[in-house]
From TrEMBL, chain A:
Official protein name in the record: DUF35 domain-containing protein
Pfam families tied to this protein: OB_ChsH2_C, zf-ChsH2
Family annotation (InterPro entries): ChsH2_C (IPR002878), ChsH2_Znr (IPR022002), NA-bd_OB-fold (IPR012340), Thioester_dehydratase-like (IPR052513)
The organism of origin for this protein: Actinomadura soli
Origin organism lineage: Bacteria, Bacillati, Actinomycetota, Actinomycetes, Streptosporangiales
Domain (ChsH2 rubredoxin-like zinc ribbon) ranges: 17-50
UniProtKB/TrEMBL annotation, chain B:
Domain Thiolase C-terminal positions: 248-380
This protein's name: Thiolase family protein
Species name: Actinomadura soli
Top-level division of the source organism's lineage: Bacteria
One Gene Ontology molecular-function label: acyltransferase activity, transferring groups other than amino-acyl groups
Gene3D superfamilies: 3.40.47.10
Length: 136, 386
């Protein structure tokens, strides 16, 4: 899977420190006791523009999906996933058979460590699956 | 007193090269003024909106040589802008803060020798931050975000790709009767199903065109409108809906949109219900957008938009003529000005081969972002309450 090279931008250090260590780190507003997506621009409860960070479980369920077709690339399954803590993430699925795609499909975060650029997170079916596809 | 649209100006639309968005906008305003029987100098208000290029802004007043304006602003609610602009123009007229207001949209995202889709797409070797990561992983186009919404509707309500295709087919049927449409060759459901995947469940023929050009309308008071060149198109009601879907558990993303609140507000102001609507001109960036808007407006129950579309109601001869000019899917993509311009043409009876049999009440929608913003207008050839 070739996605190009990921770089930090000043708002992403805790997130990419997390992916490098195989941990899913997202926003969590301590004031409002509320989990937020890592790209949340502010806490909708109190307006804090720099809510804190916390490690999420990495467990998620599938909300909806699309199979993206681009010239000269294999089709890719992109999705909205709902973290067990509540926030939604736009994410890429890996190792999922298209016939298994359904609302509520249990998923788990998986981390990829490319040679160049930041590590990133994909989501795979949480149930045991027989074919373990390699991630390149 | 009521407000009315009294002028419509449309430049050439589509693969129109060599004119900047500002030049296109100026041309459209001049055309709209001439259509109304006015000179540009008769305008005392100008509302400006733009597409992806970020131009024009309020400098358009200078380009047009307009002096002593009493209202001048750039308006941006993404695809909901046209309906919003017209409502602000109407409120300005009704309050007396301006008397004659031009509302214009212009964009020129198409470049010669570049595929049209690239105008709204992203590509890079290095990606920065969260937005970059999401794009790098494969969500690089608005098409894919709408595909996520459409897929959720399908999974929840059993909506099918063939039902989406019915909208593509009926819209093209209308376009085949519109000399202004970019895509006029009729298509079948098989053509839709066999068109290439863009982002499943959306085929190429589920997606709108990309167009260069500009469209303007002129809004004034109904009393003044009587003395102008063309029959007025009366503004009966307007509304907006910005649901603020949060990306978290419990979100209705893809299932319901701002059309629900926007439509209810506009129809209440107009004093009508959906059963009074003769024609719909709906923002159709995707076939799915039409389907979910019809549900949210109440033309059918939630989840039944697919069956409603497949019933033939939306095409020529159907019970609810919808996107009678071919919409953004087949005619031209001028954001919210696409449905608004066709509503004006229909209300005036200028639809030629595509003229709807009854146009007493026309509902016009706008939709922006990823179903984040919605606007509605209710317009009529008749004065409200007449």
């Amino acid at each position: 899977m070739h996605i190009g090279v990921l770089r930090r931008d000043g708002r992403t250090d805790p997130f990419f420190d997390g992916t490098a260590a195989g941990r899913l780190v997202v926003r969590r507003c301590a004031t409002c006791d509320r989990w937020l997506a890592p790209d949340a621009s502010a806490c909708p409860g109190c307006g804090d523009e720099d809510p804190g960070w916390a490690e999420a479980s990495g467990e998620a369920t599938l909300v909806t999906w699309t199979i993206v077709h681009r010239p000269e690339e294999p089709p890719a399954c992109l999705a909205l996933v709902e973290l067990a803590e509540g926030p939604w993430l736009h994410a890429r699925l890996d190792g999922v058979d298209r016939d298994d795609l359904r609302e509520g499909l249990p998923l788990r975060a998986a981390f990829v460590h490319p040679d160049e650029g930041e590590s990133y997170v994909l989501f795979r079916p949480a149930a045991p699956w027989t074919e373990c596809r390699s991630v390149v | 007193m009521n407000a009315a649209i009294v002028g419509l100006g449309m430049t050439e639309l589509g693969k129109v090269y060599g004119r900047s968005p500002r030049r296109l906008a100026a041309d459209a305003v001049r055309l709209a003024a001439a259509d109304a029987g006015l000179a540009p100098g008769d305008l005392d208000g100008l509302l400006v909106s733009h597409g992806m290029g970020g131009s024009p802004g309020i400098e358009l007043a200078d380009t047009l040589g307009l002096r002593d304006l009493r209202l001048l602003a750039q308006i941006d609610a993404f695809g909901a802008t046209a309906g919003a602009m017209v409502s602000y123009a109407a409120m300005s007229v009704l309050s007396g803060s301006a008397s004659t207001v031009a509302c214009v949209f212009a964009d020129a995202p198409l470049k010669p020798e570049r595929p049209s889709g690239s105008a709204y797409d992203r590509d890079a070797r290095e990606w920065y931050g969260f937005g970059g990561m999401t794009a790098a992983l494969g969500l690089r186009s608005v098409n894919s975000y709408y595909a996520l919404a459409a897929q959720r509707h399908m999974a929840r309500y059993g909506t099918t790709g063939e039902q989406l295709g019915a909208i593509a087919v009926s819209t093209r049927d209308w376009a085949s009767r519109n000399p202004l449409a970019q895509m006029r060759d009729p298509i079948t459901l098989d053509d839709h199903q066999n068109s290439r995947w863009v982002s499943e469940p959306l085929h190429l023929l589920d997606c709108c065109l990309v167009s260069n050009g500009a469209i303007a309308v002129i809004v004034t008071g109904a009393d003044r409108a009587r003395d102008l060149a063309r029959p007025p198109v009366h503004l009966w009601g307007w509304g907006q809906g910005h649901p603020g879907h949060r990306k978290e558990r419990g979100s209705d993303f893809g299932l319901t949109t701002g059309a629900a609140a926007s439509g209810a507000a506009a129809m209440k102001m107009a004093g009508i219900t959906v059963s009074d609507v003769d024609v719909c001109e709906l923002y159709d960036c995707y076939t799915y957008t039409v389907l979910v808007s019809l549900e949210d407006y109440g033309f059918c129950a939630k989840g039944e938009g697919g069956a409603f579309a497949a019933s033939g109601a939306l095409g020529p001869g159907g019970s609810l003529p919808t996107n009678t000019g071919g919409g953004q899917l087949s005619a031209y993509y001028m954001w919210g000005m696409t449905p608004l311009s066709e509503a004006v043409i229909q209300a005036r009876g200028d639809g030629g081969e595509r003229q709807a049999p009854s146009t007493g009440v026309i509902l016009v929608s706008g939709n922006g972002g990823i179903l984040d913003h919605h606007s509605t207008l209710v317009v009529s050839p008749h004065a409200k309450g007449a």
